[in-house]
Amino acid sequence: MVVLLVSTVVVMGVGLTTYAVSHLNNMRSLVELKETLRSETVNTVVYEEFRNSTHVCLGIIRLLPEYRLYYYFVTIESGAKDKSIVDVEYGSTYVSPNRVYVMSADYTPMSALLIRNIPLGKIVFNPAEQQPLVCLRVQGIGLSQGQVVVVYFLVELGGNFYEVARWYI
Amino acid sequence: MKLTKNFRRGQSEIIGTAIALSLLIAVGLSIFATFFRSTTQISAGLSSRYRFESEKAAELRGLEVRYGEDRKCRLVNTGSLDVKIVRVWWANGTYKDSSLLMNPILKPGGDDGGKLYELGVNYVVTSRGNVVPIKAVCEAKKAITEVVVIGIEGLSSENYLNSSKLVGNDLTKRIVTNVTKGTTTSRMGVLYKYNNIWYYNEGEGWFGNQRTTADEDIDDNGIYELIVVNRASLNEQKTIYNTSLTGQGDVLIVEVTFVQLLKVLDNPDVITVYFKILADIGTAPPQQVIVSTSVTIRSGDRSITSTASTSSGGFSRSREGQRVLIIVGSVSFPIRAYEVLREILTPGLYDLTLTIRFEPSGGKVSIGNIRLEYVAVAGSASINWQP
Q1: ipTM
Q2: Contact: B23, A20; criterion CB under 8 Å
Q3: Nearest CA in chain B to A38
Q4: Which of A85, A122, B1, B359 falls between 20 and 30 A from A146, CA-CA?
């Protein structure tokens, strides 16, 4: 009887410990991911550098002097849940919307809003060079009342793409 | 024996509890350490961003576009931080790396030497992401400065008989210039430089591509003057009119008439005419020449003349060894206040004549290089000549 009880306690203890350690590891991974994303967000500065009737050019500054590959995509939006993708002009790769996370209250996958693959443009920040530019052709984007063009800037972490900055044109 | 068994059972419970507690404490400490590290790193990141934003704002506050007396626009770093210009933009959307054009670092107190404005750059971008619309700011400052040079507040450019309104290839812009010395009146001409071409007008409209050695801007303020010259045929070189007055009583009168320049509007109230005259008076001090001016508005046989209130001054042009007299004045015609004026100045087109009378207050004075820098009209009349 005692042996049975002790065995039960030992098995439950080991099981609970394993669960606790696993949960802790998950939490730590999540915390580290968010910590990295917060750091990326804080260190990424987007500003408008030039605008005329046909184009808008955005500059990107990274406060940490490190090489970083940024991705971007463009949407037309009239609200948090009404987004449609504008195809970027060149150098784009298409990724599944469940790999692209944008900020609302928390990071939300774009698959919650879109079905189609998202075209991503690429831009490199190299501290040895001048801050990079993203120039977008805005002429011909038909906007209805209340719609805005939004540019999302992302970084890739663990195979997914997370928003670190956005710009409303 | 019984005691020993109980003691052993108690011992295993204590050991089990200790292990469980250690495990809990280890898990708790690990979670705490993870969050603490995260919070510390976020705080460090936020403070670096805050510092960047402060520096960016300070950089923008310190960047100033100045328009100087040398008519150059300079981008000046009046702040305490080094400013690095990374890119420059032109209005058509082309841009260049600034290091290809100039030293991109502006030290505190340093400037670009007017290089960016000379290159026609519209926007300047700094490494902190500030964008300075250098051309727009410069043009605005230039306009303000030049209005100050002209010295009349409350007038817009529309009120001025300026370069493109004054000159033109049509023959309708007639300027009749007469000079009276003693009892002799002589017809003269006027010269004006526009778009690097000298134009001549002796009352029959403008004729371009004239030859002269005249200085287009005697007071070096960037605004070219209308110059009284000796009458000559179109293919002859034009020479500046000069004369000398022997003393008091020897009078020179210069009349410049702009034919059909004024358009008097409906229900006119007050018409005010402003002008600036320059003349070379040799080595004489300004007080040695008495200058009086008047303005006449005329249509057919209807005319009205009023004496102008003027202020005068002078400066020396050391390199040419000459003294330039400057007369700035204005005349008002209060039409609605006087019935006689209402009868004369009915709505329509009128000639405007500016009369300048020179008389020495003492000894001999040489006078020449008589120029008109501007005529401006305000109130119930507008300039009829179109660009």
Answers
A1: 0.82
A2: yes
A3: B42
A4: A122
